[in-house]
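Hi team, as promised in this morning's meeting, here are the two structures we talked about. I've kept the exact order from the run log so nobody has to guess. The first one is mostly here for context; it's the second one we should focus on when we meet again. Sequence first, then the predicted structure tokens.
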Amino acid sequence: MKNTFLSILIAAALMACNKRGNDHDASGTFETVETIVSAEANGIIKEISIEEGQTLESGQLVGYIDSIQLQLRKKQLESQIAALLKKTPDINAQINAYRKQLAVAQTRLNAQLIEKNRIENLLKADAATPKQLNDITALTDALQKEIDVIKSQESAQFSILQTQTNGLVSETIPLKVQIEQINEQLENCRIINEIKGTVLTKYAEANEMASVGKPLYKIADVSTLILKAYITGDQLSSVKLNQEVTVLVDAENKSTKEYKGIIEWISSKAEFTPKTIQTRDERANLVYAIKVRVKNDGYLKIGMYADVKF
């Protein structure tokens, strides 16, 4: 009698275990997109103010790499540019002398033209001689030629000075390009966090040597996690994109904690069952992967196991 009662209890316990073991449709682990932030400059890390578990905002300055040598190089290039620009001629000052000569010659020409007009009127009244008209005409022609020569000299000098200026300015162009490159390198010395999330791992400390590509820290957005699970072919008809499902996570005292999840991806092709994954039908060799997005309340962790119930 006693043995019979004990057998009944064991059978009931086994039935309960089997029932708990089949109260989900798929299993998987939580994951997220993890990003490794690396150094973009060479030098000593002067400051890196982050800790593992710290939440960072996008665009937040978290440290900087020594940039003294870059700043000195930039000042040197700026000095070279200033020295070249000082050599450029003052075109207005040098052309101004020709303009003054031109103004004087033009004034003399205007006066002679007035005199020529007066003599022409006198000649018509027989009060002047043709020789006087010829003399004044020759003088005005000479003054006009003098003005033409001054204008030609002014134009030639302007062209020479402009060529010199353009040559000196062109020599500053590669220097300015180098300054732009240095400005970009200086910007890269600032360690800017580009992704909002939580620091998972810190790889570097202040006063360590950094080089381009050296990992500084790993960060991920853990406000929502992705549960990657696997289902068998006969379960495909039970799931669809954007479907709301129940996610079950182990809690204290062998209880479970429920979360609402949304199926955001279903694999379009089958794959062999991963050895670490158990599906409802363990006899199936081919399964389909699904991803369920779950909002994290702080309890969920990357790598944690969970079950899915459709």
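And here is the second protein, the one for discussion:
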Amino acid sequence: MIASATARRRRPPVLPGLPLSLGLASAWLGLIVVVPLAGLLVAGLRVPAAQLVQALADGRARAALALSFGAAGLAAFVNVVFGTLLAWVLVRYRFPGRRLADALVDLPFALPTAVAGIALTALYGPHGWLGAPLGALGLKVAYTRLGIVIALVFVGLPFVVRTVQPVLADLDPELEEAAASLGAGRLRVATAVIAPEVAPAVLTGFTLAFARALGEYGSVIFIAGNLPGRTEIVPLLIVIRLESYDYAGAAALGLVMLAVSLLLLGALNALQRWSQRRAQPAEAGRGA
């Protein structure tokens, strides 16, 4: 029996082994991710530092950076609030149309961003179904910063819902029942029992939604109006700089976006490690 077990362990796997799999995966990752990012970094480093600083100090660039980061942060915060609420409803309640609502959450994943931008512009435009009555109330959405935030909320919602939803599904309702039996009210249960469990997922969802909104292009350019210094986002300004042969300005903005992307990637990895460390004691306690 020992000999047969040893033979089974030594039997070569059907799928490629570690060296071949690791080599193919590394080559593919390098071609798709590392090489383009390295090209951007090299192009940026070729530009004199003074020229890069001057490009970032331009008023149009500063306005675009402020708008992109501000709108992305606001949209991510809105998605955290309402995305978490939507995930809670989908997990804890059964109602007619629940499957349809759950499927619609993934629509921004499948819908081309340009199509989303056209649809939002038609909806919130001066003569749109929502734009006309809102305009009558003195609230203009299309071709304003508010329209940009709405577009970013649309594309970022699935990241929060799909990150928080499985955590809520795995949350044991008995914990809430035990807290309630000890006299805790609903607010106390929500803040002391539920919130600590879903906090890592909520922070991860916020980071993902923020990163997605920061680099969004297609759905924004149609509803933004693209007014320099007012409704012009960084990805659009990079394209404009390239079309104007202003490679220093494009490289400077690209390096800023690359640096922020790397910071967000590090934040995501830190949040995942934090979540794993929190889960290990809980699993050990349940096992005991």
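Starting points for discussion:
Residues 52-281 form a domain with the MetI-like fold fold (CATH 1.10.3720.10).
The two ends are 34 Å apart (CA to CA).
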